[in-house]
Structures are given as C-alpha cells and as structure tokens.
User: Which sequence fits this backbone?
C-alpha cells in the first residue's frame, strides 16, 4: 500500500532505487539483522515511509548526517530522495557495524547513489559540521543531543523520530541541555512524533 502512495509522488528512477533497496534489505536481513524480522512484511510503511516523512521536514540542506544508520533509516531513504529532489546536498551515514556498512555501500552502488559511509563510532570521528542531523532508534534524547552538539553546525537542525515516551525524554533532556524544539505527529505511528531541534547548548 505505502509503495503505491510513494509511487504517486516520485519519478520512476526514484521508485526503482527504492525497489533495489527494499529487495537488497529483504535479502540481507536474515544474515545481518538490519531491521526486526517481524517488520519486513510492513517494510514500506514502517521503515521507508517513516523515513520519507523525515526527509520532507529537512529537504534543503548542504550536509545531512545520519547517525547509527543501521540498515539505512532514515539516511539511505533521504539519499534516494535527495538524488531526485535535492541533488546538490551531501549525505554521510555513520554506522559502527562493518557488516551493516557493507550493506549500505552495496545499496549505494547498486542504486547509483553518491554518499559517504563512515564505519566508525560516532564518539570517535571529528565533527561532521552537518546542517541536518538525524538518528532513529539510536539513543535517548539526552545522548542524541550530546552527539548533535558535536556534529551539528551552529545553525543546524536535528530531526529525531521518537516513540511514545517522547515527552519524558524531552523532560529528561532539558535537565542537561538548553534547546528549542517542536514536535510533529508521525504519519506512520500515532504514538510517535518527529522532534525538530535547534540551538543546543549544554546546561
Ligand atoms: C537500533 S539500530 C537503528 C538503525 C536505524 N537507524 C533504524 O532506525 O533502523 C542502531 C544502530 O546504531 C549503531 N550504533 C550504535 N551505537 C553507535 C555508535 N556509538 N556509533 C556508530 N553507530 C552506532 C548500531 O550498530 C545499530 O546499527
């Protein structure tokens, strides 16, 4: 169903790239556990459309960095959309698991995407200076703000999908960080939101 929704608003080339990605993910997943096995039948809604909505909130950028990319959500979907809608933007995926990085590079090669995949720990790389920073299912908001304070440029924006506990996470994070945030309802999960965050300064 979600594939049909997406197909209405992207070029044939973008849809082909998404199909390449979905097929490779389905093939590699049993070996390296890119997403929970139970979510594969719902891949297009649960992972791809979920990532598309993140891209649409931040589709004008110079350098987008996705931390803890895993199987590529939302960063690799952002790269596929960016190839059609914002080709001048640069995208970096950071993922410490070498096998997942091999997967991400394989999809990029097969789909003809020009991205950088860093097989490193977020804490150990020099500042990325990104103006958009995303991370899904990586860490608590408090920890994410620590990563963002290192890797985001001064005017940059972090975009973090968060689940049902998001309000408690914001309250906890406000004990450690000053930041401006807005929340938008998720289109794929009624309990989830996407947090847009700027102006991160340690308390
Ligand atoms: C739960 S997965 C989420 C993957 C993807 N963002 C998603 O939503 O499907 C978290 C990923 O972050 C990676 N990761 C965790 N800590 C990391 C770190 N310090 N540096 C780089 N990658 C890390 C893990 O290897 C894993 O692939």
Assistant:
């Amino acid at each position: 169903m979600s594939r049909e929704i997406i197909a209405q608003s992207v070029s044939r080339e973008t849809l082909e790239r998404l199909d390449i990605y979905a097929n490779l993910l389905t093939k590699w997943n049993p070996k390296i556990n890119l997403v929970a096995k139970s979510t594969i039948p719902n891949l297009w809604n649960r992972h791809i459309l979920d990532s598309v909505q993140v891209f649409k909130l931040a589709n004008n950028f110079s350098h987008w960095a996705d931390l803890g990319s895993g199987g590529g959500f939302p960063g690799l979907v952002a790269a596929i959309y960016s190839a059609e809608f914002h080709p001048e933007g640069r995208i970096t995926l950071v993922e410490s698991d070498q096998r997942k990085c091999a997967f991400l590079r394989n999809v990029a090669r097969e789909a003809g995407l020009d991205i950088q995949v860093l097989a490193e720990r977020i804490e150990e790389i020099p500042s990325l200076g990104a103006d958009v920073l995303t991370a899904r299912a990586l860490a608590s908001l408090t920890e994410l703000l620590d990563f963002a304070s290192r890797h985001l440029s001064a005017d940059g924006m972090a975009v973090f999908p968060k689940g049902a506990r998001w309000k408690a996470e914001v309250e906890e994070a406000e004990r450690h960080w000053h930041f401006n945030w807005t929340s938008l309802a998720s289109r794929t999960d009624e309990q989830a939101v996407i947090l847009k965050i700027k102006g991160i300064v340690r308390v």
